[in-house]
Description:
By secondary structure, this protein is of the alpha/beta class.
Amino acid sequence: MTARERHGAYVVLRCSDVGGPRPQAGQFYMLSSAARWGGGHAERPLLPRAFSVLRAEDEELHFLIEDVGPGTKRLCELQPGDDLMLVGPLGAGFAPPREARAALLVGGGVGIAPLAIWQDELGGQAPALLGFRDAAHAAGAVLLAAPQVATDDGSVGHHGLVTELMTERLDADDHAEVYACGPPAMLEAVRELCARRDVPAQLALESGMACGFGACFGCVVPTRHGLIRLCLEGPVLDASLLETAVVAGAGH
Ligand SMILES: Cc1cc2nc3c(=O)[nH]c(=O)nc-3n(C[C@H](O)[C@H](O)[C@H](O)COP(=O)(O)OP(=O)(O)OC[C@H]3O[C@@H](n4cnc5c(N)ncnc54)[C@H](O)[C@@H]3O)c2cc1C
Ligand code: FES
């Protein structure tokens, strides 16, 4: 690991991945620390955890971590020079907008992570609407260019839901393609809004992932075409494939 930055409730870890494949926006890595990973006598094995790549530049990968349990707590404690083990890039990422539509990025909480690298790849111009619960979490908004922010408690930006900002945008111009990542309830609201307006959307989902590469079937989610392994066919899915974005096993 080369650097650690705190942004309010979040930690950004940077690590070098010299010679590693360049990730696509929306892909993820399975991360674990080389030392003290787990709580038992030998401090192993806690399974690695899945993290979207936040940014990739100069053979360095960035990850955005929120401390919500034992794995993320340990990762948030890492210091420059500590060894971070990673497997990736994994899964399928975002596809470019269709029909010359304008990309509209909609993120909630730690789900802003894959939108940062996607905004970079789109040239930095795509508008980003970001929702957070409070000011400590809204500190993460600096990771995207020119974001419009909403908070649940009104401490920063619009007082309300990010989907309210999204509705305003689509009322002004709905020749857009929405790229969203966030908690299941937010993703479901985005999916419904887009379906109602015939606006295409790509949703980065979450489900419990034990392996990250198709072996354990722990990440299976239902789609209109049957069950799929989210680690292989996702985590980004076209919204039209889903009857609901609220899937069992999603952490948040
Ligand atoms: C494809 C993919 C990409 C992901 N990208 C990121 C990322 O970029 N950054 C990131 O921080 N996490 C990300 N996650 C989520 C992360 O992998 C899980 O939250 C992980 O389980 C945390 O491990 P843990 O050991 O800390 O907590 P666990 O022991 O696994 O979970 C502890 C408890 O916290 C709940 N929980 C999990 N996350 C949250 C949350 N955010 N808020 C409230 N409760 C929660 C769980 O349901 C559980 O009850 C991603 C997950 C997937 C599948
Ligand atoms: S995480 Fe193991 S099959 Fe998807």
